[in-house]
Amino acid sequence: MSKPTWKNPIVKWIDHRLPVFTFINHSAVTYPTPRNLNYFWNFGSLAGMVLVILIASGVVLSMNYSANTEMAFDSVERIMRDVNYGWLLRYVHMNGASMFFIVVYIHIFRGMYYGSYKEPRELLWIIGIFIFLAMMATAFLGYVLPWGQMSFWGATVITNLFSVIPFVGDAIVTWLWSGFSVDNPTLNKFFSLHYLLPFVIIGLVFLHLWALHTHGSNNPLGIDVKGDQDQVPFHPYYTAKDALGLGVFLIVFLGVVFFAPNFFGEPDNYIEANPLVTPPHIVPEWYFLPYYAILRAVPDNFIDVWGILPVIIPAKTAGVIGMFGSIILLLLLPWLDTSKVRSAKFRPTYFWLFWIFVIDTIILGYIGAKPAEGAFLLVGRLATLYYFLHLLVLVPLVGRFEKTRPLPDSISSAVITTGSNAKEGS
Amino acid sequence: MFKKALISAFILILLTGGIYIKPVQAAGGVVHPESQDWTTNGLFGFFDRKQLKRGFQVYQEVCASCHSVRLIYYRNLAEIGFSPDEIKKIAAEAEVPAGPNDEGETHNDGEPIMRPAKLFDKIVSPFPNDLAARAANAGALPPDLSLMTKARVNGPNYVHGLLTGFKDAPTGFKISEGMNYNPYFPGAQIAMAAPLSADSVEYADGTKATVEQMSKDVTAFMIWTAEPELEERKRLGLKVMLFLIVFTAMLYAVKRQVWAKLH
């Protein structure tokens, strides 16, 4: 791909001094992309779009929001009732968060299925996990802002988790609260951070893309690109494909916004926060439910039941370690997975492990919404155990012993020899 | 083939995840309310303004003695079909603190100076604050109704079930002092006594005021107070969907054409 020559004199003048046009041309127009990416590769660009939608709607919402415990709830209702199209902005923002997680979860699972985290894309994956962590923090902070019952009690439960940190835990919780309970200073702080973190995410996304464009996209076959015959320029092929994906996505997203805007929400959050009344079930937003299940899965007297830890760890501490560990562990996935073959297409055993893992996380999500008692608790514990078993034991072992299927010579040969595959790969 | 089925199943589960999550919170209630045929349901949902006016009448003559709708202004009543003159009359029946007069006084002999409410005032609440409300209701707090149908699982059906669900407690069920049996309420005991009885109100439009009718009307009114944008939202939504479907079909054609060169 040679350096483009610009005809427009203004473009030429600017590009000579600051090559933005060359940069855009390289990374979004001529950027060579494997020709066989399937529709699961749409979700990366979709996530970027949702991030932009969230920031744009959020900036406008913040112009009408009051981060004060006396006014927050009513200011949100004022947006819903008296601000022109305020209801649309808020429902787009609120459901945009849910959509962001749906899109990103599919994006992450796609990476797991096709081994996109393997050499040389380990850092790309790790940056991605940091984006995910920043997203979780932002979503949590944002959920507190409307100052409903779930906002308040969710904030109380989640910030209290930090009290398990040895010695300084309680001090950290006081520091997070800027006081001795979740109150006005906490709300102010959370609003500020909720506005800040999306821009941190943008920075991380920039690094994510930089790392991506250094070695190019992985592909459904998981084999390296061998030459020009394996690739197509990003534009018009993937701009057209991403645009189609965006269209379909917007139908789903705006369908929810206009016709079921509270589908993902908690009715309790339409009751103003009241520190004196605890809701019967405190449940996080749906996208945190698997982690909530892990948090609550660890039994009391951990040591008596499992007999493996050398010191007694209270259930709460162990639960918090499990919850954060379940995400931190993903950072190590490139090294936990010992297989040299990337795509699950050529890994008959891992293929099944992957789908069982997906089902396991769905079970965890289901359990997270249930009260932690009886059969739910038991299933939650088994599912939690399997989550860690999968990442820590099965994935490393399978990579060592699995007999993988033979890999095709190149992307183009695989696409051209099997006609039906060629269709599927578009 | 099998893999494709698995993948689609997975996406389906992700997208419908919320459905499985929903019934969980409903577990607090004792009986699940029956689904009613609200005019606001569905893609073409709309407000039946005659019904909303009746619902407001029920609210004003029955509910308003204990329950507020603090997020609603008198001016909002124009949205459900009241004329400006009617609203002015409704507003003038209530009083609000007048604020400082020419001498800068807000109180006269310790009593706040009052003036009739106007269009720009919020609908006056029955009690000045929560404590006063509790004091007048044997310790129970009558909740604000502005967001009621959004603040309960399956809100509209729940409210209607509750309003029509008062009955004698089954034998063996222990009712606390001053409480009433209602199987739709979490715990089946509620401080509110059955608020509606036949002909509690006399409808201006001649509709027969059965308990069922009044309950439906006032619930419809509460759907409006909770989601006054509902009608506009669904109308705009249909246009947006129509546009997106056509637009996406065109994007599909573009994509096919671009990729045709490659196949």
Give the topology string of chain B: H per helix, E per strand.
HHHEEEEHHEEHH
In CATH terms, what is the architecture of the domain at 35-72 and 122-228 in chain B? Orthogonal Bundle
Q: Widest sheet of chain B: strand order?
A: 1-4
Largest sheet, strands/sense/barrel of chain B: 2 strands, antiparallel
| CATH homologous superfamily designation of the domain at 35-72 and 122-228 in chain B | Cytochrome c-like domain
| End-to-end CA span of chain B | 22 Å
Number of strands of chain A: 2
Give helix % range of chain B: 40-55%
Per CATH, the superfamily of the largest domain in chain A is Cytochrome Bc1 Complex, Chain C
% residues in beta strands of chain B: 5-15%
Query: Biggest interface and which pair forms it?
Result: A-B, 56 and 49 residues
The CATH class of the largest domain in chain A, by name, is: Mainly Alpha
Order of adjacent strands in the largest pleated sheet of chain A: 1-2
Structural domains of chain A: how many: 2
- Global shape of chain B: globular
Question: Rough shape of chain A?
Answer: globular
Number of helices of chain B: 7
Total number of strands of chain B: 6
Mean pLDDT of chain A: 93
